[in-house]
Design a protein that fits this description.
Two copies of one chain form a homodimer. The first copy, chain A, is 32% helix and 38% strand. In chain A, α1 packs antiparallel against α3. At the A-B interface, β1, β2, β3 and β4 of A face β1, β2, β3 and β4 of B.
Chain lengths: 113, 113
Amino acid sequence: MSIQPAPAYEPPYVMAVFTSVRTRDDTGYPETNARMNEIVRANPGLLGYESARTPGGLGITVAYFRDHDSLAEWRENLEHQAAMKHGRAHWYESYTLHVATVERSHGFVRDNG
Amino acid sequence: MSIQPAPAYEPPYVMAVFTSVRTRDDTGYPETNARMNEIVRANPGLLGYESARTPGGLGITVAYFRDHDSLAEWRENLEHQAAMKHGRAHWYESYTLHVATVERSHGFVRDNG
């Protein structure tokens, strides 16, 4: 199975874009990151979750939710809140969160047939 | 000057998220990519533009605009349209575009003082 971008869901849906630059402190980060993946993927309102990080540079994570209530559940999750607090203390040099409602989307998939 | 994520702008603003997986065809891609950067950065309604690509994997580009008219100007730019057409023919295995209005944003910057 090759990598695919998350598809164009049916609008309206909610999109949270988290951009970040990390510190050099990696202690506990991979484990927490894996656990956060588990938690967000268990959210019944999650449509998709994807991220990219240029080595040594900027990371961008996008979470797609059916509605604002589903995003609120993720935001208010206690393990997630503890992870964000630990992240501000240790793992992130800086980050920005943008929460938006998607009004339009479309996708393209190459026809290799 | 170290890398920084785009800051939290004052909502509402428009965010276009373009996620993609590339083909192996790189012919002309870096030059066109650089030219597209030039064009979008000349857009007076552009607030910010950032991207990350995991080597061999998913690329995520986020463009932040003051309003939908500014985004429309970018979408309708003829060089941009030609580049997208060429991209579908040669450079992209698949891509998705999500266009949204940002309702809430916040940022964090570490205090290294």
